[in-house]
Prior knowledge:
CATH architecture of the largest domain: Alpha-Beta Barrel
Distance between the termini: 61 Å
Largest sheet: 8 strands, parallel
CATH class of the largest domain: Alpha Beta
Number of helices: 19
Helix content: 40-55%
Radius of gyration: 29 Å
Number of domains: 3
Shape: globular
Strand content: 15-25%
Strand order of the largest sheet: 3-14-13-12-11-10-9-4
Amino acid sequence: MVAEGxxxxxPIHKIRQQHLPCRVPRYMNVFSRYGNRAYDGMxxxxxxxxxxxLCFLHPVYNAHExxxxxxxxxxxxxxxxxxxxxxxxTTLTYTPRQRMLNAYLGQWSDCxxxxxxFWYYLPARVMGLDMVTFAREVPHWKALxxxxxxxxxxxxxxVAPAQPNPAVESTSTFESLGEGxxxxxxxxxxxxxxxxxxxxxxxxxPSWHVERPIxxxxxxxxxxxxxxxxxxxxxxxxxxxxxxxxVGEDYLLEVxxxxxxxxxxAQPMGMEEGVMAxxxxxxxxxxxxxxxxxxxxxxTRLICEQxxxxxxxxxxxxxxxxxxxxxxxxxxxxxxxxxxxxxxxxHGRLVHIHYHGxxxxxxxxxxxxxxxxxxxxxxxxxxxxxxxxxxxxxLGGAITMNGNVHTVERLIRGCPADxxxxxxxxxxxxxxxxxxxxxxxDQVGGETPDENIHAMVExxxxxxxx
Length: 466
């Protein structure tokens, strides 16, 4: 089209001003002087269509540049001022996932890595959800993604393949008990009997067991055993692949192979009953331990073959010195951990293990497995880490420490200055060591003030690198 009343000889700059849908960059004005002298209609039309094309490409190019800027570590600028004249500004150029992987590998990034363990409480708070809705309707990996974005920090999370078991049949009911509480009951039918499992849900707290499947070991063990080893060839990675792709570089999403042996055998009966079962039926559980270790080794192999480059994660509930003692852990859990680590390393994968509570007695054992990252190195009274210099010497620059910021005394009860001092203490103890992630001593509590979380992140960004 041409400007009204001008015909084909209308100056290009008038055509641009009246008809183009966007502002043409200034350098396009060079065409206007040629339009005034161009009497050949084809030339004018050619120039007009070139202008249109560049006008279209200009916002596309800008959008591409913006996308590159976001992907290049969210190119965030972190500024911290505390009523002083000095303001610390750090430009970040790695992605959160890259920083986590670099810490696992013992390589420096553009800043110290900080990864608070946001698990249930904080993600639910960020998303504005009660704990029941959060647990039943939101994929955990997605909740973590929103939370890490919200606080502009690195982090890690887990996803696992689905494991159908055609040998058993399960039905589930979910009912309200009033006053914000709900009960879920799962009935599982096997060739050897029927098992009943019940969990309580509360709008303010994560769910917990009130009834477990094994109530009488002699009667229920065989039925439970049929549920315990779903066929590995039927593992479904659909959701895991979707999660890994959706998370991308936002944080380090790991693939959980499972928990350790004591958690596995005690989960269906309870911790105390599990300890007694090991003592009363040692031969049975030695055979089960062997089967479990072989199963987990094969599961690790399949995970490595079916997923890309995500680290392998080993979980921990009761499998720790604080609850079963260092000697029982060494006897029952250590062999399985070593088998998983060896298989993962055979496939070139990194391994991250969660070992909460008191760790110092079993730290030499964990180091011996060759695991790549350990968390969360809790302080007193929940843990027993009192000498960070000793921890650094023991890790020997071969294993990454993740954690150590006190979730109660500093993050909940403390002020930003208290949090900053603790972060500084950790940073000084590991000065010059890239295998460090400033994390929390287990999960960040729901009462934690936002200003303390921000203080933890900003203080970590100010720590020197290299």
